[in-house]
Amino acid sequence: MDADLTRQIIDRLASAQAPVLLTHLRPDGDAYGSLLGLGHALKHQGAKPKLFVEGGMIDMYRFLPGSELVQDLPNAMPETDCLIALDTSTRERLGQKTLSWTRPVDLVIDHHISNPGYGVINLIVAEIPSTTGVLFKLLESAGWKISPSTATCLFTGLTTDTGSFRYRGTNAETLHIAAKMVELGADPSEIAKQCYLSITHERHALKRLVSNTLSIKDGKKSAFLTIFPEFYTESGAKSEDTEGIIEEVSSIQGVEVGSLFEFNSDGGLRVSLRSKGKVDVNAIASAFGGGGHKAAAGIRFTKDAEKNRDLVLAAISQAIASLKS
Ligand SMILES: [Mn+2]
Q: Ligand 1 centroid vs 202 CA: distance in angstroms?
């Protein structure tokens, strides 16, 4: 991490009295982990942080220390002397309600390679596989207190964003960071139990419905799943229950690109893409206005769902065809 930039960010954080922390819509473990991890650290420093995300807290991450502090986005811009965006690759992904807020985003802290840097100061570290990992390095450089609660939140972001330290991008430094978090009080098996061994029955029912839509293409090198709106009423699951479902396809032997197409009841389409490494899915997603990382990316379409699904599938086929077998 760039030393000058790191210093600038730390100074800006240290001077904030009433920082407002935001993260992306459809939040995941790294989103909540970043929000709460930095929230705890700022509190220890004597600041009065406020934590917001569209929809507030979801059940799955309620085990995180301080989860009751996470609030749904307010309609009006909250008063603040430092607006901070965490783990959010575009300004829009902070949520519709924030788009009318007049204050620029003061700090952007992220690890998405596609992040254009929409803040006044931007710390985007693509070499670290979670935003909580970036925050850990930042807190370490600052010499700030990292309590067991902070460590638990930060470890949760790191384990979920790396698929339990399995995805490409997990390297020795990732594991060093994880080890330090454990030394500081994060409990890996307890966090794993909460994140991976506590699937609700509704979520499991949704998974079964989605599994039945499996389609394999491109000489068995790509595969996709589909979610239809009625799957939610049939299973009782919520939109957050789709997290991780894409692994049903991306984990199949020989499949280079796995994708998930979620048809929304408003006519929109949400696409998730995963690669085992040979295909750059960030490049595919970027061509349609989406983004993410080389191995995991996403796209959102507001209309023409079927047509856009076909276009994305064609782009995947083309990328697979251009691979040297
Ligand atoms: Mn992340």
A: 25
- The CATH architecture assigned to 3-196 reads Alpha-Beta Complex (3.90)
Inform me whether the pLDDT recorded for 183 exceeds 80.
yes
Query: Please, are residues 316 and 259 in contact by the beta-carbon 8 Å criterion?
Result: yes
| Amino acid at site 52 | F
Domain with CATH 3.10.310.30 in the chain: 201-321
CA dist 93 and 106 (Å) reads 16
Q: How far is the CA of 324 from the centre of ligand 1 (A)?
A: 31
CA of 30 from ligand 1 middle (Å) equals 5
Distance from the alpha carbon of residue 291 to the mean position of ligand 1, in angstroms: 12
CA of 209 to the centre of ligand 1 (A): 27
Q: How many A from CA of 300 to the centre of ligand 1?
A: 17
CATH number for the 201-321 domain, one of 3.40.630.30, 1.20.1250.20, 3.40.50.2300, 3.10.310.30?
A: 3.10.310.30
Span 30-54, average pLDDT: 98
- Band (pLDDT 50/70/90 cuts) for residue 324 is confident
**CA of residue 125 to ligand 1 center, whole Å:** 11
Determine the distance separating the centroid of ligand 1 and the alpha carbon of 113, expressed in angstroms: 11
- Give the pLDDT band (50/70/90) at residue 325: low
Q: State how far the Cα of 28 lies from the Cα of 33, in Å rounded to an integer.
A: 8
Q: What is the per-residue pLDDT across 59-73, written as a single tens digit (0 to 9) for each?
A: 999 999 999 999 999
Residues 6+ apart with CB under 8 A from 231: 206, 209, 210, 237
> Contact 225/208 with Cβ under 8 angstroms?
no
